[in-house]
Amino acid sequence: MAERRKGQVAPETDSTVNGEDWYGRDIGGQTFTRVAFIDVVLTEATGTGATFEECSFKGAELNSAVFRDSAFVNCTFTRSSLFGTTFTGCKLIGSMFDNCRFGAFEVEGGNWSFIGFAGADLRKASFKGVQMREADLTGARLGDASLRAVDLTGSWFHRADLSGADLRGSTLTGLDPETTDLKGAIISLEQAVFFAEAIGLDVRPD
């Protein structure tokens, strides 16, 4: 079981949606607060401007769902499926994913700071222009993933696999090359200098 940073517990929920089929449903503009979605089918659901506050998703199916300008604040996703799910300009501050399945998972823009991806298999994921400050990527598998222009300032990378990942344009302060697998990762010249200095090299102009 993944844990939140500083040992914080997941928020308690006040109501439950259990086993309902919301396949293809448009939930745009709706607000859900402290709702537990258990075994709910949200495959190909769409949501523009939807808000989920301190909700939990247990065994939920969000495959190929499309969310735009929506918020999942301090939510918990447990044993849920997100194959092909797309988030554009969304806010997932403080949310946590535990034992979830992702596949071709796409995120563009938005704020995912303090996100919990510890141990997550994100090998086919794509993150672009996302703010992910202080994200927990401990033990996450991101080999061959794309993280372009992502702000990962202060994030946790211990034992993370970033082999073959495209990291160009991303802010990676806090990443220790000695505890993270970076074999074959794609980086910019500026980032190359950062990593060289991180392992103690003295980088000077010709």
Keywords:
Pectate Lyase C-like, mainly beta, 2 domains, five-stranded parallel beta sheet, about 210 residues, 1 helix, elongated
Describe the fold and architecture.
This protein has 206 residues and is mainly β. It folds into 2 domains: 12-101, Pectate Lyase C-like (3 Solenoid), CATH 2.160.20.80; 126-198, Pectate Lyase C-like (3 Solenoid), CATH 2.160.20.80. It is 5% helix and 21% strand. It has one helix spanning 189-198, and strands spanning 15-18, 31-33, 35-38, 46-48, 51-53, 56-58, 66-68, 71-73, 76-78, 86-88, 96-98, 106-108, 126-128, 146-148. The strands form 3 sheets. It has a 6-stranded parallel β-sheet with strand order 4-7-10-12-13-14, with no helix packed on it. It has a 5-stranded parallel β-sheet with strand order 1-3-6-9-11, with no helix packed on it. The N and C termini lie far apart (50 Å).
Strand content: 15-25%
Q: Helical proportion?
A: under 10%
- CATH-level-2 architecture of the largest domain: 3 Solenoid
Q: What is the average of the pLDDT values?
A: 93
CATH superfamily of the largest domain: E3 ubiquitin-protein ligase SopA
Coarse structural class? mainly beta
Number of strands: 14
Sheet with the most strands?
6 strands, parallel
* CATH topology (level 3) name of the largest domain: Pectate Lyase C-like
Task: Output the helix-strand order.
Answer: EEEEEEEEEEEEEEH
Which word captures the global form?
elongated
What gyration radius follows from the Cα positions, in whole Å? Answer: 18 Å
